Amino acid sequence: MQVNLFPRSAVRPVRALFAITLLATALLFTSEHTNAQQSANGAISVKDHRFQPGQLSAPANRPISIRVKNLDSAPMEFESVSLRVEKVIAPSSEVVNVRVLAPGRYEFFDDFHQQTRGVLVVE
Ligand SMILES: [Cu+2]
Fold this sequence. Notes:
The chain has one helix and nine strands. With about 120 residues, the chain is of the alpha+beta class. The N and C termini lie far apart (about 65 Å).
């Protein structure tokens, strides 16, 4: 005997749509997981309005994830025109994701304290 869980219900199309959305989301995550390049992780701190270290290195042609730890008591804004990132960082830790990069030098700074500068070297 066939068991129909949602007989002639108006709810059915909604449930079907929901199921399709869930499936699509699952597929999206799966393909991202299998196809995404392994991202390179870096870490940098800001203390007394100075980046430590002042220079980071990363591999070319891979997504980059930088953990920026703000050790000062004031918020800072991690910004870079060439990296196309701009993110306010409260006195805590945050990850800044950077696009895939060609080899080169990418300068970044604290937009709230412009003398605070560093460079990401991609090779
Ligand atoms: Cu800014």
